[in-house]
Structure formats: C-alpha cells, structure tokens
C-alpha cells in the first residue's frame, strides 16, 4: 500500500492496516527527516544518480509493512517497483535511525514489573511432534512363490 492510498482511509482503517496511528507515522517522518539531514549524503537523498522514486512516507510504510505483515523484502520491493536490495537498504537504514532516536522504544522488562498493571501470560506449546504411524514390516504380508512358466 502506498501513501496516496492511505490518505483515503479513516483513522480506524489506517490503524488497522498500517499498525500505527497517523500521528505516530507523522512523528516517525519528522524524526527520519531530521536524522537524514544530519547523515552523510549516501542515504539522505542528496546523492548522485536518478531521483528517488518514493518519499519518506512511503519508505516508512515499507518498514511498517515489513514488521506488521512479516512480508519479505522481495514482496515489498515488487509492490513498490524497486529491487530487493534497495528495499533492504531502505528498511535497515530506517530501523537504525528510529532506534537511534529512542522515541519509539517499548518499555523494558523492569518498567513492566514495576507498573501497577498486572500481566497474565499464557504459553502455548506449538512445537513439532512426530506423527505416530505403523511401522513397516513383513509380518503382516505373506510371500507366495511364483512358478516360472519357462
């Protein structure tokens, strides 16, 4: 999904499809733009070569697709019409920048244990188990001799 298509969505639809609210996406764009302005020219869009196809909104939507839908770089790249390597570069660079900003971190383990909210965790064992099948042996079959006609 591209940025132009998300403009038509209501706030609930946007949150449901993208995974974050519009305000959070706007904050991400502001952070990425400021970090990109301070970064070397190789990633910030002021490099030699053709003009980039997509703006910061579309690049952050790529990142959110990668995390929200567990899509591969190949699928995202195919949707946006870029190479898989370029998609990887965009997403990993944005990851690095957003981690560097420290604005979008989740609370740590200590913070969660100190809060007054009680958490209940349910673990489900979904590991693989071998399927029980009957063993193959020759006890159940009888072997008959054939007479040759020669």
Quick structural summary:
The chain has 150 residues and is mostly helical.
The shape is elongated
Helix content: 40-55%
Low-confidence stretches: none
Radius of gyration of CA atoms, rounded to a whole number: 27 Å
Structural class of the helices, strands and pairings?
A: mainly alpha
Count of extended strands: 0
Proportion of residues in extended strands: under 5%
Arithmetic mean of pLDDT: 81
SSE string, helix = H, strand = E?
HHHHHHH
Helical stretch tally: 7
What's the main sheet like? none
Notes on the protein architecture:
With 150 residues, the chain is mainly α. It has a domain of 86 residues. Helix content is 50%, strand content 0%.
Task: Show the helix and strand layout.
Elements: H1 3-6, H2 11-18, H3 22-38, H4 56-69, H5 73-80, H6 84-101, H7 109-114
């Amino acid at each position: 999904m591209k940025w132009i298509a998300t403009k038509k969505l209501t706030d609930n639809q946007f949150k449901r499809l993208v995974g974050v609210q519009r305000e959070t996406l706007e904050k991400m764009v502001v952070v990425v733009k400021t970090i990109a302005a301070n970064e070397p020219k190789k990633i910030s869009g002021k490099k030699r070569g053709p003009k980039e196809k997509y703006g910061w909104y579309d690049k952050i939507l790529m990142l959110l697709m990668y995390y929200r839908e567990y899509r591969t770089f190949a699928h995202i790249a195919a949707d946006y019409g870029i190479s898989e390597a370029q998609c990887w570069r965009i997403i990993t660079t944005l990851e690095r920048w957003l981690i560097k900003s420290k604005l979008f971190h989740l609370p740590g383990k200590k913070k969660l244990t100190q809060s007054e909210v009680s958490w209940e965790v349910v673990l489900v064992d979904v590991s693989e188990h071998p399927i029980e099948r009957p063993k193959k042996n020759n006890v159940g079959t009888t072997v008959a001799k054939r007479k040759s006609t020669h």
